[in-house]
Every structure is written in structure tokens, then in C-alpha cells.
From TrEMBL:
Keywords for this protein: Repeat
PPR repeat start and end residues: 197-231, 232-266, 267-302, 303-337, 338-372
InterPro entries reported for this sequence: Mito_RNA-Proc/Resp (IPR051240), PPR_rpt (IPR002885), TPR-like_helical_dom_sf (IPR011990)
Pfam families from the UniProt entry: PPR_1, PPR_2
Cross-referenced SUPFAM superfamilies: TPR-like
Family to which this protein belongs: Belongs to the PPR family. P subfamily.
PANTHER family associated with the record: PENTATRICOPEPTIDE REPEAT-CONTAINING PROTEIN 1, MITOCHONDRIAL, PENTATRICOPEPTIDE REPEAT-CONTAINING PROTEIN 2
Ranges in coiled-coil conformation: none
GO molecular function, a single term: mRNA binding
Name recorded for this polypeptide: Pentatricopeptide repeat-containing protein
Amino acid sequence: MAFTSTLKYHTWFPFHHHHHHPASHKPTSNSTLSFATTNHERLTTTTDPAIRLSPNFTPTQLLHSLRREEDSSAVIHLFYWASKQPNFKPSSSIYKEVLQKLGKAGEFDAMKDILKEMKISLSVIDNDSLLVFIESYASFGLYDEIIQFVDAMEVEFGVVANTHFYNFLLNVLVDGNKLKLVEISHSNMVSRGVRPDVSTFNILIKALCRAHQIRPAILLMEEMEDFGLLPDEKTFTTIMQGFIEEGNLDGAMRVKEQMVEAGCVVTNVTVNVLVNGFCKEGRIEEALRFIEEMSLREGFFPDKYTFNMLVNGLSKTGHVKHAVEVMDMMLREGFDPDIYTYNSLISGLCKLGEVDKAIEVLNQMIERDCSPNTVTVGTLIKLIDMVMEKAKFSENEVTMIRGFLKTSKYQDALATLGGILDSRKPNRAYR
């Protein structure tokens, strides 16, 4: 089937459907984790921030004031000032806010001091407050320190990590591609008798798929029944994505059928994972047929992710005009293209020599507050080079436009480019 006819007869394209309206700090940490000492005196001698609270503040007012502070020294001083007031009522939310502010600054020693204060004031420390440490260490790439911290928190504070805690920990390690630490942490979870849930399995399956261990991932999914658990859509789509990353779309489709047989509801998440698989392999016609099939069978309606993937896929396979049509439909439905979609489309138009249309799409991108990234700027420079060659721009004109680009004045660059082109009508021989 010709591509044009395929596009024409795919009835899912939304002409009459309902509309959607989119609306450097250096970390400080000791090599070992010990909570035996406090730097309370050092912290309280920090330069005074402008205290915006009266001594009669409420817990909510204190929380809001802490959230407004950006400087970690100001946060810690405000906290200790507040803790000395007669109506101060310590709570997990207040301590957690202080921990988060310090974590963003990499002030891990100060965080441990706050944790000690929390233990004294509240008697108990909740798991959620400890998750701030994991997230903060990860943001600075200190993954080994995470494992040390988990061991220390149990020894020093007697905090028993629950399933949610381990799920968060495992997911952070997987996202950081620290698969050996995932193995260690899961082993600790098992040895401590913490029972896994569906999310635990999904995270471990994600880890296996990232390690290109698809078969072990499937076997792990099959083990879920031993724990009285059933795979959910996330379980199946994670394995589908694993197959797709291995270039095995057929394997992903088989998992989709297994998912349906298991009685798991197919949502846009599943459809989009598979559409992405088709597009990655350049099988755009099959992607369209699959979308049509799912629209008829499952009531699927394309969302912004579907549209973005199709525009990307069409652009990269040379069907740029069809990509423009799909993006027009996308905009009519109230969905905004992402920066990668704009990049693909603009690059495709440039390759075809469609200078005017490329400029139009660039203008649209900026007007819709989708700021160009380095890829777009690179494409824009290529576009200007093309215009210079075909429309015989002077060296001064090109230098001026590139000067706007270097200072991120994209609107000025495009306006100048358009003005030069308009001034040369009707002799626009670059078409």
C-alpha cells in the first residue's frame, strides 16, 4: 500500500474528536557515616538571614518560610531560630523540608545533624525522611555512600526499611545504572525479610532489561505468582521495551499478546511503547495500521506521545510532508510538539530544501515557548548556511544572524532572516 493512501485511510486521525488543552554546589560528606557528633554550634553562627517570621508563627508559616529560602545556611539558621521559640512544634514535614534544602546543596554532614535532632524531638524517624538522603546522594553521583547510609541508619537509629523504602532505593540505583549495587541492595532486602510487591518486581525487571538480560527478566516475571502477585501493565511494557531496545519488535508484540491473554488492560502506555518500536525501525505504515487497529479494538486515541513519535518517525524516514500534516493535526488537538519533534521536522525540511517551511516551523516552535536546544540551534545554523548559499547573503548578514544565535536571541535571528528574504522578493531564487 502506498504511504499516501495509508495515511489517507487511517480513520483515527482526529478531525472531530474532543479537544485537549495543554496547558553548582560541592557536596560535603565524610568517608564514613556516623551520627555521633553534631555541628550545632557551627550551624547557628551562620550569618543571620532576614527573619520573616514573628515569634508567634504557626507550623504552616514556618514551613512556607523554609520553602522560600534558597540558601542552605539561611535555611539551617531559620530552623534553629524557630526551634528555640516557645511555640515551636516539631513535625516530620518541617524536618523533611530542611533535609531537602540541605540535600540540594550537598550538605550531608548538616543533614546528619538534623537527623539527630529529629530523633531527639520526635523519638521516631519515618522512612520518607530517609529517602531524602538517597535522592540527594544520587543527585551528586554518590551511590556507594547510599549503601553505607542504609546500613548506618539501621544501626544508629534502628529504622527498619520497608518495601516502599527498598523500592525507592532500587529504582534510584537502576536509574543511575548501578546494577551491581541493585544486586547488593536486593540481597539485603531479601535477607531482612522485606516482602516484595509488584513495584519491586517491575524495578528489578527494568534492571535486567537494561543489562540486556531479557530472558531472565521474563523468568522473574513468572516468579511473581510465587508471591501471590500478578504482573501489571508496567511489568509487560518494561519487557516490551527491553525487546525493542534489542531490535526485536516481534518479541515485543508477542509480550503484548501475552498481556492481553493475562487479562491486563491495554492503555495508551502499551500502544505508545509499540508505536515507538515501529517508528524506531522505520516501519511507519505498520505503525499507522497498528494505531488504527487499536483504535477500533481498544478505543485508543492518540495522545501527545503518539503524535510526537509519528512526526519523528515520518521525518526521519523521509516522509516530511506527511510529518507536517500530522503535526498540524496534533496542534489542532491542543497537543504541543516536543523539542525532539521540532528538531526532526526542521532537519527533514532542510534536507529537502524547504527553507520557507523550515523557518515557519522554527518560528512556531519559539512562539509556543519551546526553547531551542543545542540541536535546534545547530539545525538553524545549517539552515542559515543554506540560505546564504542559495540566496547569496552577504557575509555581514550571516555574521549578524549568527551573533543573535550565540546570545540566544532566536526571535531576533529569525526576524532578521525573514526581513532579508522579504527584501529580496521577487528574486528569491533559492526555492
